[in-house]
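Kindly draft a polypeptide, keeping tokens residue-aligned:

***
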Amino acid sequence: MKKIGFLSFGHWSDSPGSQTRSASDTLLQSIDLAVAAEELGADGAYFRVHHFARQLASPFPLLAAIGARTSRIEIGTGVIDMRYENPMYMVEDAGSADLIAGGRLQLGISRGSPEQVVDGWRYFGYEPGEGQTEADMARKHAEVFLKVLEGEGFARPNPRPMFPNPPGLLRLEPHAPGLRDRIWWGAGSNGTAVWAAEQGMNLMSSTLKYDEGGAPFHVQQAEQIRAFRKAWTEAGWEREPRVSVSRSIFAITTDLDDAYFGGDGESKDQIGFIDGPNKAIFGRSYAAEPDELIRQLAEDEAIAEADTLLLTVPNQLGVDYSAHVIDNIVTHVAPALGWR
């Protein structure tokens, strides 16, 4: 059994064929797609977060709106770039959204990916400390966020407050019980996956990672997951961690599917550079008729290792078609693979 969700990059453009011409289109359609996915039996609605781009950015208003419109589906991010975040304010936003959703938030956070502008986090008022890198800064923000999410008091109360205080040190409000255990780290390497385990975060692994050894992408990703689980056990955490992987998977069941994605059937892993000199490996896409797709996916070692699969959806093709993509996997592929 696996949880199956979707991951939307939340693009909009006024290009021909786009069903999301504006930010408003993308936000409102994201809510509608989450509602549709819940009705189809999917388990999660996840959204990318990018700044200075015509894509989804500030996630918490969207997550709260989806939480108010749905009742069962998990709601999350993949991922929030912690270089840009004030962890204190983020705790308040996340707590509010989680309470509105009834404890269904699953927040993916990370050091982030290359952005649209140079050092965009500087415009948000953040600078790495002396001798630190931007990655160090992101991890520091994450550590503060995790600590404050625990809900322990840390702030000295005013002896003459405007409103009565409870006894002792004060915490940020509203507090969302259990949210600390529903934070995921988007890891791009084996080393950062191990660090995530040491911090007690779940693992979120996308369709790319640093190339560490030259094996096929799904093999390297499976090795990353095993390294994470080993580190989790060694850290002594009592709860069972969760692991998600992302994939572009399209079951071709109609002529329109074939027109859009039939050419992706021969997709292969790719090697490239996304951030500095380190070589990265990009996982292949899957596109085939259901029987062939089932055969191919059964050989993906990383999907086998994960408990959650996030399907990237072509959000610019509109809610109905994205829902069709999700339904194809849930209905025609997942049962044969034992995911349902």
The chain has a mean pLDDT of 96. The CA atoms of residues 121 and 127 lie 8 Å apart. The chain has one domain: 3-337. DSSP finds ten helices and 13 strands in the chain.
